[in-house]
Write a structure and sequence with these properties.
heterodimer; A: 4-stranded antiparallel beta sheet; 4-stranded antiparallel beta sheet; 2 helices; B: 2 domains; two-stranded antiparallel ribbon; 6 helices
Chain lengths: 184, 180
């Protein structure tokens, strides 16, 4: 009896797998985004750490993400921030300083406790930032001393009409005021 | 216990032993305790019953087949699954959860193969430039705000309306991380 039940279980598993394999072939192909993704060379930024950090100490820092769209209003952006440095984890995402991007941007929650995040936001209103503006803040956990190297890529930026506009991406270690509280 | 039918120890003695040694050995070991025939019969009957019980099959033979076949069947199952997994094409990585930007309360779970999975769904490439990024969500949002959204192409979750939830689906796709 036990053997029969086991065989039935195995057949059921095989059939479940077969139904996946029967999916249309085009769903198994590369996505359009993967097929035509544009290689964006990331910029490298090294942020200094304070001196006198013990090897086993854990500390938290905030990384400010700035976009400078010059004299054109910025309505949408998508960017990636990554660090391959050891002892680095993303632990929080905060919105920017301008009202258009004050809410936290879109991001994949798997970025938490990871070393990479893609941030994106847009604003359909008329009140848009131009020039240099902090669009997001990334809270990170750092283990041990040493400077951290960040790789940043601006994947998209657009004006209010949806047309792409140039912008410059910059990250800086945040100088948090004691009274400031993050907007989660 | 020595049975009557057994040979006496003296019968095993070599022939070339001196007579006095043989006599001494016989005097010392030549006669032991002797059981009566009734006792011997009782012992033999008891031993026969014991041997019969020991030789009887304990369980049905089918259970032995199960014991022998279970490891084989399990091994065959694992082998089947292993072959299937090595033959399957790699599936796109799908996030379990995505923070849906401006509406934290809308943060939801995404499941593989579900309606909001990152399956490379071309319907989410709103501007048809071959990429799914925030500009697709932005375009859909502008269409919704302007009242020009086409339910035929913009109703991604197929709930009958083109609204913030459809925009969130596109934006969620745009920020998905692929994990190594």
């Amino acid at each position: 009896m036990a053997l029969i039940l086991l065989d039935a279980l195995l057949v059921a598993l095989a059939c479940a797998g077969a139904s996946d394999a029967d999916a249309p072939a085009d769903t198994l192909k590369k996505t359009p985004a993967e097929a035509s993704v544009v290689e964006i060379k990331p910029e490298v930024t090294e942020l200094a750490s304070p001196a006198g950090i013990a090897a086993d100490s854990v500390r938290f820092e905030a990384i400010d993400v700035f976009l400078d769209s010059g004299n054109q209003p910025l309505a949408a952006y998508q960017l990636e921030v990554r660090s391959d440095s050891s002892g680095f984890e993303i632990v929080g995402i905060e919105g920017g300083e301008h009202s258009a991007f004050r809410s936290p941007p879109y991001y994949d929650l798997r970025a938490m406790n990871n070393n990479r995040v893609i941030l994106a936001a847009f604003q359909t209103g008329d009140d848009l930032p131009s020039g240099r503006s902090r669009v997001a803040r990334i809270h990170v956990q750092l283990l041990g001393p040493g400077n951290r190297t960040y790789l940043t890529s601006l994947m998209a930026s657009a004006g209010s009409d949806g047309q792409k506009i140039p912008a410059r991406l910059e990250i800086l270690r945040s100088e948090l005021k004691k009274s400031s509280r993050p907007e989660w | 216990m020595r049975l009557d039918s057994e040979k006496s120890p003296s019968s095993d003695l070599p022939d070339n032993l001196p007579d006095d040694v043989v006599a001494s050995l016989k005097a010392r070991y030549g006669h032991g305790p002797v059981a009566s025939p009734a006792t011997n019969q009782a012992v033999l009957a008891d031993a026969a019953r014991h041997l019969k019980a020991a030789c009887r099959p304990r369980r049905t033979r089918s259970w032995q087949w199960v014991r022998a076949g279970l490891p084989l069947a399990t091994a065959a199952g694992f082998l089947l699954l292993l072959i299937r997994s090595t033959n399957d094409p790699p599936q796109p990585e799908v996030a379990e959860t995505v923070f849906l930007g401006n509406s934290p309360e809308l943060t939801r779970s995404l499941s593989r193969g579900g309606p909001v999975s990152s399956s490379g769904d071309r319907s989410r490439d709103i501007d048809r430039d071959g990429q799914i990024n925030i500009l697709d969500a932005f375009l859909l949002a502008r269409l919704v705000v302007a009242g020009d959204a086409d339910p035929g192409s913009g109703d991604l979750n197929q709930d009958g309306t083109v609204d913030q939830q459809d925009i969130d689906l596109v934006a969620a796709d745009a920020v998905l991380l692929t994990m190594n």
